Amino acid sequence: MSVMSDRVVIGMDPHKRSATIEVMAGEETVVGVGRFGTGRDGYAAMTKYAKQWPNRVWAIEGCQGIGRHIANRLLAGSSLAAGAGARLRRMVMASRLTRTNAVTVNDVLDGQKLLEIDCLDRVYLTLSVPNLVVGGQVVSFLNQHEGMPVPSPALLERRGQTFRRAVMSFAGANDIPVINFTGKKEKTRPGVLADSPWPERKIDQVMPLMRQAAATGRSQVVAIGVAQEYQRVFTGSKSATDTGAVWFTYQRVDRRVTCYYFYLWDTDFGPAFIKICAYFPYPGKIWFNGHEWAKRQAAKAGISFRELSNGFAASQDPHGLQDICDRLGPGTITSR
Fold it and tell me: Rounded distance, CA 11 to CA 179, Å?
């Protein structure tokens, strides 16, 4: 690619072990993308890639938080830039990055926007059973719902085993791939693995299957991921009364247990997943991306747009696109 004389903005979405960048020209045309590790080799590859655009400005999300470590490295590496002009640009960016309020992509693009859309981004919904929050409710559940006079922890283990067998049976009956997420894991980020030069997110392993599912044009379960993660679950302890009768009590504790990720392709919502813990009380999460939902609704409505990996770059009908984004709410989600 030829060196560009116009300024570009390199937007960065940083994580602890990786950073995704998107290079945008003045008219918000995406001219480059990449994902790099934040180790020595990944950082060197990213800065080498960015040198294609001498007149560049870095816009780092969370530069006073998760992005601070890589922002400081960029500032400290000002000697990598050749020429006084480049150093001056580094100094200007340094003054922005070290101010009290973190600079955002909107700060950099202020006055240059071609499209501004308000839309839900990544959405996490928590799944829980309101009547299974404290230990006494577990005892009541086993006594009254299950009809068991002795609320033994063995009953919970039996239910968990039944659930795990049902998941594997469902996968086998429907030819759904089962992916075992293995590798060295970080305790602070249980969803991140370390089988690659930098930890790989679970969704990165599933995306090739997602693209295949999208090509079929129908909603489906794409894959089932199996992971060992820390979850807040119930454990039981045995005690005896003064008369020698055995009884059980339950407490919520953090335990490393099996979790299943049901990765979905939906014709309305696009990629999504439902995560369910295989141990009582089976906490879970639903994840989807509001931008992906809006893209599909806009296409159905005949509204043309130029998409970004997580958003929109341009549209011939921004008001119509905004109306679609405004429709995404609890009713839309629950009705699906």
Answer: 32
Span 119-134, pLDDT tens digits: 998 899 999 888 888 8
Q: How far apart are CA 286 and CA 20, in angstroms?
A: 24
Neighbours of 317 (CB within 10 A): 15
Please give the full DSSP string across 117-157, using - where no structure is assigned.
Answer: -----EEEEEE--TT-SSHHHHHHIIIIIS--SS--HHHHH
Average pLDDT, the chain: 80
Contact 288, 294 (CB under 8 A): no
In whole angstroms, what separates CA 220 from the centre of its chain? 20
pTM of the predicted model as reported, rounded to 2 decimal places:
0.65
- Give the type of residue at 274: I
Q: H/E element holding 248?
A: strand 246-266
Q: Across-strand partners of 234?
A: 252
| Phi, psi (degrees; rounded to nearest 5) at 287 | -125, 135
| pLDDT at position 31 over 60 | yes
With pLDDT > 70 as the criterion, what percentage of the chain qualifies? Answer: 79
Q: What is the C-alpha radius of gyration for the chain, rounded to an integer number of angstroms?
A: 25
Q: DSSP labels for 55-101?
A: SEEEEETTTTTTTHHHHHHHHHTGGGS-SHHHHHHHHHHHHHHTSSS
Query: Measuring CA to CA, which residue among 321, 329, 301, 334 is closest to residue 118?
Result: 321
Measured in degrees and rounded to the nearest 5, phi and psi for residue 241 equal -80, 175
More confident residue, 208 or 104: 208
Q: Are strands 18-24 and 30-37 parallel, antiparallel or unpaired?
A: antiparallel
Q: Tokens in use for 199? A: 């930890």
Q: Which residue has the tokens 């039996």?
A: 158
Domains in the chain: boundaries: 8-109, 122-335
Cα distances (Å, whole numbers) of residue 197 to 11, 18, 203, 291 = 22, 10, 17, 29
Q: For the chain, give the number of residues.
A: 336
Residue 56 has pLDDT above 70, yes or no: yes
CATH 3.30.420 assigned to 8-109: yes
Is the preceding omega at residue 208 within 30 degrees of 0, hence cis? Answer: no
- The answer for residues whose C-beta is within 8 angstroms of residue 82's C-beta and 6 or more apart is none
**Close Cβ partners of 6 (under 8 Å, ≥ 6 residues apart):** 25, 26, 55
